[in-house]
Structures are given as structure tokens and as C-alpha cells.
Design goal:
- It comes from Lysobacter panacisoli.
- Keywords: Membrane, Transmembrane, Transmembrane helix.
- This is TIGR04222 domain-containing membrane protein.
- The protein is mainly alpha-helical.
- It has one domain.
- The chain is built from ten helices and six strands, in the order αββββββααααααααα.
- A hairpin with a 2-residue loop joins β4 and β5.
- It is elongated and about 65 Å long.
- 35% of the residues are buried.
- The mean pLDDT is 87.
């Protein structure tokens, strides 16, 4: 069955957006994301790919910061070294999150509606101009705030060029920047600080489940035993 070109275009945009936002988590990793005022954590979904758990952040919240961290890491276990810098970094993402939302509306809502209701060449050209103008504005903000985002000039230019080459990827620029920045700390201390009690307990249960699988293969590994002691603090 031959699908219409308009449908293929829309599906391609959606696929690029979702593919770019998805993460493949190792058994010892969690993804930490913000949903509104609250933080949430996940050890990955039920689907595995090449031995890793697939995690897909909320596709309706493209401007939410996204971090990944390991509960096997023992660097900065109390997490105090990263908290002030992380808060400042998250605030600085406000320079680009508006552009992410606008691109999300233009590409994931505006494009399908336009193709379905009024696929006039001038209307499509106007949409294209808006998409690239917004993408260029996002790239400019990345350049202006490159030092806060931990980018040198070459890295900022490279990211801006990549965003202009593929605007669906520009929707994920907040996630890209936050993943690049990282938390550089122990996941247990991180979720104990950033998550509320119920969410931290739920995440701890998921981490214990993954830990039990790891111990079944690696036995009483010293690093796993230390991690188990820290994870038990979330109960």
C-alpha cells in the first residue's frame, strides 16, 4: 500500500523527534526529568534494545530538562557539589525552552493541520520560514549562552549547524544541553534530594529490581553491595 507523501512527511518529522529524545539506559542508570514543578525518575521502560532499557521522555513536554546518572557512581555521593551549579544551569535553559515549545507546535501540530486543511504552497512556505527562523533563534541563544552550557565556540557552532540541518532535532535542544551538562553525581543522592518521598521510594524499588538482576550475574560484587546499601536508604 502506497502512503501519501504528506503522511510520510508528517511521520518522518514525528519519528525524528522521538528518536532524538529517546535514551538507552544501562542497567545501573536512571533518567531524571522535570514534569512541571515536580521531578520524576525512571529506570527505563519494559522494552529492551541491545541489552539496554528504552526510555522515552514525555513527548508533550519538550522543554523539560533531562539528566541521566548512575547508581554505581560514588563520585560526590552527597550531591552537594552539583546542586547550586545545576540549579543555575536549569534556570539558564529558559533562554531556549520557549523556542523548543514554538517548534513543537509548528512541526508537530501546525504541519499536519496545514497539510490536511490547506496544503497551499505559499502556506507551506510561510510555515517553513517560521520553522527555520525559530530554529535560527534557538541556535543564536545556544551561542550566546555557550559558556553557561559548557560549550566552546566550535561546539556551539556545530550544535547550531546540526539544529538548522534538522529542525525536528531542535525541539530537543533543552534535553540535549542538559544531557551534555550531566549531574556527575551518585543517582541515589540525586533522587533523594530532587524527588519527593513517594517518587523516590518508587524509583528505589525499580533500582533494587535492576540491582537484583545485576547481582544474579555478577554475584556479591563489592560495588554492587555498596550500591545496595545506598539504595536501601530510599525505602
Amino acid at each position: 500500500m502506497n502512503l501519501p507523501m504528506e503522511l510520510l512527511l508528517v511521520l518522518g518529522v514525528y519519528a525524528l523527534y522521538l528518536q532524538d529524545s529517546a535514551l538507552l539506559l544501562h542497567y545501573d542508570e536512571i533518567a531524571l526529568t522535570r514534569a512541571g514543578p515536580r521531578w520524576r525518575a525512571s529506570a527505563g521502560g519494559p522494552v529492551e534494545f541491545r541489552g539496554r532499557r528504552v526510555f522515552l521522555p514525555d513527548p508533550l513536554r519538550p522543554a523539560g530538562p533531562l539528566f541521566r546518572c548512575s547508581w554505581l557512581s560514588e563520585d560526590d555521593c552527597d550531591g552537594t557539589a552539583q546542586r547550586p551549579g545545576t540549579r543555575h544551569f536549569i534556570v539558564s535553559l529558559g533562554a531556549v525552552n520557549g523556542g523548543c515549545r514554538v517548534l513543537w507546535v509548528l512541526l508537530l501540530v501546525g504541519l499536519p493541520l496545514l497539510l490536511w486543511a490547506y496544503a497551499h504552497p505559499l502556506a507551506l512556505l510561510a510555515l517553513l520560514v517560521l520553522v527555520y527562523a525559530t530554529t535560527a533563534w534557538v541556535a543564536l541563544q545556544v551561542w550566546r549562552h555557550r559558556r553557561v552550557y559548557g560549550l566552546d565556540s566550535r561546539q556551539a557552532l556545530s550544535m547550531g549547524f546540526e539544529l538548522l540541518c534538522c529542525p525536528p532535532h531542535a525541539i530537543n535542544v533543552v534535553r540535549r544541553l542538559s544531557l551534555r551538562h550531566g549531574l556527575h553525581g551518585d543517582a541515589v543522592a540525586t533522587i533523594a534530594h530532587w524527588l519527593d518521598r513517594d517518587e523516590a521510594r518508587r524509583t528505589g524499588d525499580a533500582m533494587r529490581e535492576r540491582l537484583s538482576y545485576a547481582m544474579a550475574f555478577r554475584g556479591d560484587d563489592a560495588a554492587l553491595l555498596r550500591a545496595r546499601e545506598r539504595i536501601e536508604e530510599l525505602a
